[in-house]
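Model: You mentioned two targets. I'll fold them one after the other.
Researcher: Yes, keep them separate.
Model: Target one:
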Amino acid sequence: MGIVFGLLIGLATAATAQEKQKFEIKFEKDKAFYQRLTTKVEQNLKVTGGSDVPLKHEQTFFFKWTPLSQDKDKWVVKQTIEGVKFKLDIAGQTIEYDSTETNPSGAAGNPGLVEFFKNLIGAEFTVTFGPGGVVEKVDGREELLKKLSAVNPQMEAVLKKVLSEEAVKEMTDPGAGVATTAEQAVNSSWEKKSTLSLGPIGSYERTFNYTFKGKDAEKKELDRVEVKPTLTYKPSNDAGDGLPFRIKGGTLATTPETKPGILLYNPKTGRVESVKFNVILKGDIDVTIGTAEAKVALYQDQKTELDTADTSFLPAKK
């Protein structure tokens, strides 16, 4: 009995040690890794007294991450946008662009859109990560703004506000915000709050609640984290110069239909292997187009997926 009891204590101690995790994003000099980020959005807009307007939007970004140097607990890493796929469907009218094609087609009626995406390809950011892999500083924003503004100078002011320093920091976080320097026990939770400003379009107050659930049932070498997003949209007081519309009032918020997403972390490599979550927003907004004003009921279903690998996700050009 004493032997069995001692064995049980040993197993329990080992399990406790294994179940505590520090979710740090790790790098290895010159060892590149790759990510594919896909966002799918389905919206339904209903103008008061009018008919429903369905909208579908899908985009995929292909990233390459190259660790350049380390100074104590800080890393400098280069992020490169390798490719972009984009598709927008408004009430059956489609605009699309795919950089993986030799001659991107589908947006012949919108050459400005093609040029916009062409200027994204090859764009680079130099990111400084602090302890635990938390983004501290990003260089390269000004260069990207210059390239994108050259396509449509009238949009320069809007782009500067939408691509704010905080927004760029989020774009250059390979850990999807999970990084924490504190050890987490199974079923412990931590949260991160932030404001995503979209300039004249408005802003989102966001809370991401992370809960460590232990090892994943299927991929047992990975740690499973549930991510519960809570978002509230607020319109901007900005006049919205450069935009064909202005959102003057109203609110949007996540609904009870929004369930926790799943993040899988590899403790061996110190990378986030995959993320999947689904955010559902609902509310009413007041929109002005020219001199016309309308109240719009909006329902939005957004699915986001992030995958990480040692080789590029970029398909061969067709």
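Model: Target two:
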Amino acid sequence: MATANDEEVLEGFLCPICKADLKSASQLTSHFESLHQEEQDVLKSLKDIFGKAKKIILNTDDADLRETFDRALKLNSQEYYYPLEEQTVGVTRSSTDYFKAVRSSRLERYAIETNKLLIRLDKLVCNMPSDPNHRKQYEQEIVPWLDGSSVNLCPNCAKAFNLTRRKHHCRLCGSILCHDCSVFLDLNIAKSIVDPSRPQTSQTEEVNEKNGLRLCEHCYNLIELRKQVQENRNAKTVLVTAYDQMRSLMEQAKPAVAMYEKMCQSLFDGETTYNLSDVNAMRGRIGKLAEGIDILSKQIVAFPAEPGTRQAKLQNSIRQAASHYIKEDLLSLRKLPTEAQIEEVRRQRYERAQRQIQKERERTERERERRDEGAEPSGSWVDSASHDDDNPLLEQMNIIRGYIKEARKELRFEEVEILETNLKELKKEYHLQKLSNKS
């Protein structure tokens, strides 16, 4: 920096002799060597200053270079830096009460205005006529409209009203606005805002003046804010959502455990309703439910909470209850029988059934012999056997077997049990028909 006179201040890479701006250090050096050869001492000092300045800029930790550079530029640190003195604390004033008062008055004003709009909205949507011709008159009776005879411009966009830009009114405050500045509130959403217990329907079509209420932007923002407050109030936290999911898995596990015990008992009794693969599939399903319950309970107990507070104790209790439920109800299941045990029990059951069938046949034969003593045996059973494939009972049994296969594949064992019962009844009826034909 150089000063030409008292008023003009020059900046840049200036020649100390002719005050010319050379734009860079290299140009300044070459200029001084060519035009001011007689001032070589000044040139040497400039090179030293530029070199030392470069080292200082590159964070060179050389204290001597810094002192030399300060002396070259004739800087005195004592002239520019003053020792710091301890500042005494002055008068303080808290503005918290003032801010709270301003905020309370503002919130109260918005709350009163929003409540008035909700009262008007309740009156509008509860008894709104279905006929569009009577709807405008009804809306004017609920909320009086402002007289727009002297209003020539839209208060929102300041555009003039004419034949193509007609005047409209807000249905909640009665103010005047144009169509472009209108916002439409869906009637179903309006009813859900007035009555939070009302189930919301999904909006599938565009909202217009036929299926919505015309509102100004100010009223619409207040109603939308109330809707957001309701949604936030009814929204579930992450902790509550995890707990609900855990309870849902527990509710699914109860009938699964009961069905598993029933299937195990069926295998021990030698019944053919279920097989070992069905019971193993049900056991795997219960294991997955137990794993899901364990993961959710760990998420609940890991949720941030102050130690020793009621929330922390509640989270620990939920975790302990879930662990106890998994250990006592889901993991302590009845041990399955082996394939050999199942085959042995079924063989014994089959032999008992065969002995019972033999006894029934002998009893039927004795009754037939007493009834038709000395008569030749009928040959109708031969015809029945020859046309056995056309028996509708066999067709129904094959259809039910197909349904049982599909139900087992989808682990719907309640349906398997019902179908197996029907199949047993059909088999019993089929055997009775064969015995009657033989008799």
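Researcher: Noted. Anything on target two?
Model: Residues 2-80 form one domain.
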